Amino acid sequence: MDPMIDIGSAVNEIHQIESLCMRCGENGTTKILLTRIPHFRDLVLMAFDCPHCNERNNEVQFAGQLQPRGRTYHLRVASSDKNTLDRHVVKSDSATIKIPHLDFEIPPEAQRGTLSTVEGILMRAVNELEELQEERRKIDPGKAKALDEFLVKLKECASGAVPFDFILDDPSGNSFIQNPFAPAPDPPLSIKYYQRTNEQQEALGFLVEAKNQEGSRNVVPHGTFGAAATHKAIAHGNNEDFTTALLKYSAPEEVMTFPSTCGLCGIPCETRMFVTKIPYFREVIVMASTCDGCGDRSSELKAGGDVPDKGKKIVVNVKNRVDLNRDVIKSDYASVTIPELDLELGSGTLGGMVTTIEGLITQIGENLDNLNSLHLGDSTTDGKKSDWKDFKSRLSQLLDIEEPWTLIIDDALARSFVRRVTDVIEDDHQLNFEDYERSWEQNEELGLNDIDTSAADIYYDDSKTPK
């Protein structure tokens, strides 16, 4: 097996089966190993070896569950930057790799289940393209010449001779690019989360269509599995205490029940919905579904009302255990910053959640373990291991309140909330709200720059008479 596979993995029993070689058609041997990379996921490692034509192939498949959202990694590789080229990359069998300035793409079916480096993935692509060049020169010399010129450019990228962008897009959310600066932010690497389309869900094995007595129709699952649009919900989850936390503020006047379809198994189920008002926050819609068929339970909190004109920044000075027990509603667009740790999590990193400040810090630690999964592997230097353990220790000390610290939640949609601990919000001096004007870039990301309501404004303006 590829030595890269040994990154911190625990070896279990290896199984061997006979399988046909794709190159010569003779019987070969496939070795299968179920293992786990610490702080990452369960993996199925497969290594094929053909004794007849010496064909060898290694593959990594994920044994765990699909992630709630897809991920896009954008890595900027500077020229002569050997360290960036040596970053570990996990490419699942649903991921696509792109080099935009070369107009080059490695589709999901190529290099399936790869555990390598940036340089290794590019050099493997070079080798696979060069494999049939001699035959191409005989059949189509023009195409072979053009491919030779392209391979020169691709080799320049793999050697670090020229700068380029390395984009890894995985709808399953199971791919990964190493952050050597973890837990600090990674300047050349950005991560974007997105909701999968129906086509992507179908390709990954998600249920997209179901038939009922009236015929076939599209199913748009609710909860974690398939919000119709990005940033539509404030938070979602499968926690039984989800609704209980909200009812501390106000009880619903009416709970409505309507038929729905389970987002996992596709059978009919019921969804319960009510509208409530959280003081000093806004009107929210709470939806909860339970499926008797597969047992799936999901809860979702949606914002009511219009999009506010300004964003909101919430600053909490955490000084005691009471502050740790403050309720928090974090929207999926909000970013989280802790200045004392030089920690900043961009929008979408944690998703939306209804929790407490203590729960939020715990989730940050688990999420960083997941995102920077190979930082404690065998290939990591002792210095990086020490830095990461020191950071995790400092993060856990926040919950011990050894020193006061600051939590900042910045939400351009103003859909996040932290509970006050005094009867009057003005008396809570450790909690501050700051309104600010959104930048053009923030409005563009939210799709607000393209919204034009001027044609309808006349019907809401009493001073004008519609034609």
TrEMBL record:
Highest taxon, organism lineage: Eukaryota
Its Gene Ontology cellular component terms are: nucleus
Q: Does the keyword Secreted apply?
A: no
The record's family statement is: Belongs to the ZPR1 family.
Instruction: Quote the protein name from its UniProt record.
Output: Zinc finger ZPR1-type domain-containing protein
Q: Where in the cell is it found?
A: Nucleus
Which GO molecular function annotations are given, in alphabetical order?
zinc ion binding
Query: Native species of this protein?
Result: Coptis chinensis
Q: Which UniProt keywords apply?
A: Metal-binding, Nucleus, Repeat, Zinc, Zinc-finger
Q: Which residues form the Zinc finger ZPR1-type domain?
A: 19-179, 260-420
Q: What is its main location?
A: nucleus
